[in-house]
Records
---
Amino acid sequence: MGQQKEDRNSSHPLASNGGRGEDGITAHQRGAPRSHFIRVQGVDLHCLEWGTATAPPLLLLHGGAAHAHWWDHIAPALAQDYHVFALDLRGHGDSGWFMPPAYEVEDYAADVAEVITALHLTQAVLIGHSLGGFVAMRYAVATPQMVRALVVVDIGMRLGGSRFMQLLRTVPPPAYKDEADLLARFRLLPAATSASPALLRNIARHSVRVHLDGSLRLTCDRATFTHGPRDLRGQLAQMRCPTLFMRGEKSDNVSAATLHAMVTLCPRARGVEIAGAGHHVFLDQPQAFLGAVQTFLRAVSDK
């Protein structure tokens, strides 16, 4: 059974900007998401919601060490056609931490299943970036009847075993003395990105909360940094839903050869490479990302 760590303060003073905040993103551009918590295995999982309940459902899954607000600039556009939810994976964002740690791919996929059931998201579209993309594939393999379509962003068929992430897990998390310090030192993981400064500021502000000593600490449980090795190569043929595999042209995470192999193995898949993007595809090139996703989803809807 999981439980939240007691020293986590749930307030986000840096993220509560009315009108146009200092990050340059207006409330309208944010789409004014609604916030929900869903109890799963004794821990509250947090998700954001855009759009109307009459539209077909779409679930967004962020990558490792990230959170649901990474999708703030993407979700409102998707909500023109879909009822959009963005989940904070366990141990990330405003979702609870598990003690003892339980952050394997199967744990995340089980949470997705429970959230989809709780929200009554029949035949949902799943879009996942990095770790979230791997979790989405794992869920689609296990429950193909529940997935309308799948978009997997810059993640390959194998996960886990990174020595760098194992080392990073043991390093004490950074503490930021104030907002200025946060915005000066905050970096993505991996750090390389061409995202706009306004977008990075928005992500940074939602990545921390006030610690008991007054410092700003990252919301992510560092125990989430490592996973047991997993390989889906032999299971991709079981994914029967229309699938879009996407990589960034400059990505070091997924090669063009891996993208081609995944498309070949998956029965109803296509692949796309986003020019000028690295691993953080939808941050680096948001319009190109949206264009590719919307084109794919329109083709799925027409069938």
---
Amino acid sequence: MSQKVFPEVLSKASDLIDSDGRVALCQIVRTEGSTPGKPGWKMLVRPGGQALGNLGGGAFEALVKLDAGQKLDEAWPVAEIKRYYFTEEAVRGEPTGMVCGGMAEVFVEVMTSLPVLVVCGGGPVGQALAVAGCLADFDVLVVEDRPEFLEAALYPEGVGRVAVDREYSSDHLESVATRDLHIAIVTRCWETDTAALSSVLRQAPSNLRYLGVLGSLRKIERVKAEVIAAGHSLDGVDLRAPIGLPIGGDSPGEIAISILAEILEGKNRKQASEPVLKEVTVGGSKRRLGRLTQA
């Protein structure tokens, strides 16, 4: 197969990331013996299993699609190299009947769009958090029911602004629904906090990575009670409340920094995993794991 087809695969990656929020890039990086695909062959796998590109077809490509799909479902996917064997009598895994006799190593990486920081509340803390989020390479979206707190001059260039009513009854997360979301609720009172939290739970974004509410313990308990009374469940929800790391300080800027620090601490800790080398026989059900080492 001509290598000319694979630049087109890469050129589609950006569009798929924009539409789906994430896409898995699978590339053969090394082969031994006879294999259906060759080094440099590439394939993109979308959430749901649709693929663009070619690794050689057959059971091998189907298994790579399956493995890539599982990685796309992970909250914090780590790039890895997987080694696939093509043997009639399996050395590892289960026999498949394939007689190529070779081996292929496939690099699998999930590529994502920038994470989104959704700031519910455009007051002083929300404004400071929007600035901090931009500095930390988040796409920032501010959601507010008061028009005067959605003025463009209050925020850095590029910050998205969404107007809602006081009950947060609209689906304000719709435009970023496929993205990795970090949501900070910092509205002006317990009533709008309740409305904002209820709205998030109602919309149930699938890629919610962080959810926090600003306020005292007493206020938080009131908000939780009101949300539950409205018919929403907090079971299984990792709600950070009170929000932010306990670094001290009570100015809007200091509070914003404590919130962003908590978001970054969780995101970076969960992403800091060592890559692994997985060895599998194509079509097999047994897998053997080993640490990836540098040659």
